[in-house]
Structures are given as C-alpha cells and as structure tokens.
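Cross-check.
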Amino acid sequence: MDTPRPPALPDRIGGLTELAYNLWWSWSPEARELLRALDLQAYRESGHNPVLMLRMVEPRTLARAAQDPAFLGRYDEVMARFKEETEPSSLAFPSHPGPIPGPVAYFSAEFGVHVSLPVYAGGLGILAGDTLKEASDLRLPLVGVGLIYSHGYVRQRINADGWQEETHEPLDASSYPIRPARDAAGRPLVVVVPAFDPPVHVGVWQAQVGRVPLYLLTTDLEQNQPWDRAISQHLYTGDLEGRLRQEIVLGLGGMVALRSLGIDPGAVHLNEGHPAFAALERLGSSVSRGASWADALAAVRKSTLFTTHTPLHAGTDVFPYPLIERYLLPYLDRAGLPRDAFLALGLDPANPGAGFNMTAFAIRVSQTTNAVSARHAEVARGIWSGVRFDDHPVPIRGITNGIHLRTWIEPLRIQKLFDRYLGPEWRERPDDPEVWARVDRIPDEELWRVHEERKAALAAEVDSRARRRWGEGTASAARIITAGPFLDPRILTLGFARRFTAYKRPTLLMHDPERLRRLLTDPLRPVQIVFAGKAHPADHDGKRLIQEVYRLALDPRFAGRIAFVEEYDQHLAKYLVAGVDVWLNTPLPPLEASGTSGMKASVNGVPVLSVLDGWWPEGYTGDNGWAFGGEEIAGDRTAADAAALYRILEEAVVPLFYDRGPDEIPHGFVRVMKQAIKTVAPRFSARRMMREYGEVYLSALGLA
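Predicted model, tokenized:
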C-alpha cells in the first residue's frame, strides 16, 4: 500500500485537501455540493471519492475555482462549518463535563462510513460507521479501531445464468481517505503483534470521521512473509486459522497500536466478538505490570462493553482449543496469564467441547453486554443463559440500533424539505419527538412530489448502472433485462435490499408464483419489485436465492416488473431507501437481531412492511407501516407468512397506494408516510442510541 500523495492545490482553496481526508464531508450536503461545483464529472467518475477526485481535476479548473467569487463564497462557508464541526473532542462527556480517564476505544472488524473507504461488508459495518459519525456530532471522546483489507471486500457480478460471481479490487491507499498514523518521531507507525512467532508487523493507518479518529491495521507489509501479509487482505476469510490470526491482529494488535499512539482508553467497546482479544491484551499488559490475575480481570471487566449482534449460536466464532493453544499459549506464558483460567473464559456451557467461543469470552470479560433490539435481548438471554461469571448469570440488556439521520435522509430534496417545515432543530435534536411532529405541517402534495422525484432518481440510477454494464461488453442481454430497465416510476414499487441468505427469506414473495404474477401485472394497479444484495462468497444457498430472483426477473410472464440490481453498496442503498414506495423485510423470526434498513426507509417517508422481528416490534405503531408474522407457528411457517404478505399487499397496500382523488395524490398513503417519519426518526436515530451507550460508557469509566 503506497503512501498517499496530496494533490497540489492553489493556496486559496488549499483546505480542500483536509476536507477530502475527513469523512465529515460524507454527511454534509453543503460539502458535497461544493465538491460537485468544483468538477461534477470528476466527482462522479471518482466514485464520489474526493481524494481521488482532486487528483483527476485539471489544474486550470482548480486555478479558475480559486478566482471564482461564487465558488469561493461557498468554499468559505463550508470550511467554516467544517472547522466548527470537527474541532477535537475534549476528554469529557456532554452529560458529564468533568475529566475522564481516557477515550472510549470502539473496536469493530468493519466500518462502513462511506463507499470511498471500502472496509465493510454489510450491516455490522454500517452500524459502526453511523456510531462514529454520531459520536462526532455529540463530541463524545471516541476512537475507532479496525482493519484495512488491502484486497477489499468482494465486488458482485451476476453471470448469464443468474449466479453470483465475485471479484476483488486491491485497495490503493493513495486513492482513499486514509493516511499513515505517525509515531513520536513522525515516521509511519508499525507495531508488532505480541502473539506471533516469528513476529508479524502491523502498519497503522488513520481515517478521520469528523472529530473521531479511526485507526485501521494492516499486515500487508513488505517486511512480513506472504502468509502473514495475507492476514488482513480479505474481510471475513473463510479459513478458520486465518480468521483467528485476523482477530488476534485486530484485538491484540489494536491495543498495542493505541498504546504506541499514546492513547490509553478509559473503556473499550467490543462491537461483536471479533475484536474480543483486545481484552486479552489489556489483561496481559496489567499482569505484566504486577497486577494479580483477579485484579486485572476485575479492572478489565469494569471498563469493557460488549455488543452482540447474532441471534444464533452458529453466528459466533468458535476456535478449536489446539488452534488457540498454538497461537496464544506462548503469549499467555510471557504475560504471566493463567492458561486454564483464560480458556475457561471462552467456554460455552451449551457446547463445551466445541472450542473457544468468542462470544462467551466477550460476555465474561465485559461489565455490560447488550443486544441490538428488545426482541434480540430476549433471544440472546436464552442462547447465553448458561454463560456465568463467578457463578453468577450475566445480564443482557437491549440497546436498539439507530441510524445516523444526516447520512441516511436524502439530502437534495428531503433534507431541504425538513429544513423548511421542521427547522434546523431536526439536525440539532434528532431524537426529539416534538420536532418530528412538525412533519404534519408538510403539505401532502409537496411531500408526494418530492417522493415521486426520488422514485424517478432511483429509476435513472438503475438505468445508468445497466447501461454501464452493457457498455463494458461483459454482460449478456438477459442480464441487462433483469437489471431493471423496465422500471416505471409511476407504479407501486417494493424494495428488498439486504444480504442474501436463507434466514432473510428474500424469495418469500415468490412462494406462490401465480399469485405474484397477478399482483405484478394487474392492468389497473400493477406492482414492481427491486431486489439488491450480496451473498457471502461461501454461502451457496444465498447465491441460489439470487439465482431464483434472476430467473423470475427474466420470465416474460412477470412483464419486466422484477429487477435485481447488482453491486449493492451504500451509494445504491441511499437511492433505494428513498426511491421505493414500500420497504419489505421478511426474515424467519426470531433470527433478525435488529435490522436498520427499514429505519432508513421510514425516515425518508417509505413505510415498512415487515415480519414482527428485530426492531419492528418496537417500531410498528399500527399506522406507520404494516406487520405480519407475530404469532408463533409450529413447523415450517413459509406458507402462512407468504399468505399473510400477499393478503396485506392485495387488501391494504395496493388499494391505499392507488386510491387517488382529482389531484392524483394518494392522501391515505401519504398519511402512512408521515407517520413513518414521525415515529421512526426520533426513536431510532443514532442520537438516541448513542445517548444510551453514553450512559453505559460513563458507568464503565466509573463516572455514573
């Protein structure tokens, strides 16, 4: 990975370099408009990546901008706001302004801040990215720690048979918003992971997310052997030993990196079990300084928070004991840590012979464990009821996920609509229901007109993607037909976009193909569906589900009203959550831990139609969307849930959408849209989520 070379800019607009390297611009509409005003085509061709964009802009364009009064006026306004909103956070909490012992270190295997930094795969990473953004907005003293995957996550291509194929694009650090972290001498920081022999060197890069630094680790360095360079090349490697080595680098290496940067966290937040070895390094460091095992464990537990995201035993990492012993026993011996006591922390009583369970370990080394919705907390308590510490059960509370509203509310039209009718308070107090009650002030015709524009924008984006694929000369005509060129913005559009895997049941709507055909091709009240999502490279069942959607999309009986849009990412997601009419969610309960895509749709005025699982039992009010599947059903519930889904669409959603008066506005449907915004935005904002986490952080810091 090459060291980035900042572009040469005229002095008058030299601040654009710092702006490009701080991902604050990704949730500032004014900053993005400034970048587009500089060179719209370069902004688009760069994939909305300002670092790469500035390398593409012609020098004469930069020189002209540096003398353009209109551009400079806009530049000065953006840079003033940039300075104000990225001033470093002090070591204090807004609710507790006194000094704290150190920042909270937020560890996660992936961070989905923006498409210009592709170090994420899905929902876990998007949540982590939203967490850092909201921490920046709240001035919380937080630092992020993760990995940078030099070969990136997979890019998705669907072949002529509808089968997902994966490609990798190596990450060129010079073209991404990251810089080398520096040691005390100003040199690029490289640390050594204490568990490996021979040593494995880890480079540390820094991304800036508003006020929050995000440190990303890589082993893809020339001084490492090829086997060791590969540790951080791919996100979620399927090789068990490779996964263990990756998690050792993330946890142990992450703590060593922070220490080398002079950062001594007051508390550590483990986002899922992947980074839990951070607690091991904290234990080892404490014991090596003279603390007893019992005292070290008590201190680490007091200042560690763990968030579990999986509702399944199978969703956690479990490593065979011989593998754990091979890699960690030498480290335990050097640090003076008791072998048996450490291994006992990773014991899962429900399956003691399976190996070292990372979730069980994370629960036992944390003062607080939380699930990501109230329903998930119930499920998690059942799964992990046997995990005890000092013979006491470990409580699991629910802190329901939230979304960063300034990221996910469409900026060009919907945010401006909210500015006009809700005022600036929706940005300043995004978790205040009274602010969102003002949505009723928006005239139906104005909200509907904006929504129709977003539908047209989605159709244009889908067309553009299909055209580019056709222009590449690698896609068959059949593939282009299924990519959505026949979408009609005037008809009822359903959206389904998430990871394709069996428990998400993306093909539930296809359970009865003939009933679906009648629904989609009704001559007076037609319906269309847009699908998007990736299957994990090793998930062949998920790939078969994509293939099933593809084959129906290709079937002329469905009149081109099923589309599968490949390469689902944050950019496409923002078009989808604002550009469909209804957001579908059909998981097999109780396997949806939380889910945030429906939250993102709702705050854009797109109501949710979902199984009552994950966050939806807390979010559904009876008039802000539609729900089914709340009852217990013995055995295979597919037919019952599919029937309920068809019935809601046929009897409620479709009639409401097409019930128009002389003004051609579906006022009943718009009422549901407004209720979705009013009820979901304040309660499921990242602001509310981070306030709840803030209370837990203060407890972990000994300040509650």
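The longest helix spans residues 444-472. The first strand starts at residue 104 and ends at 107. Passed to J.P. for a second look.
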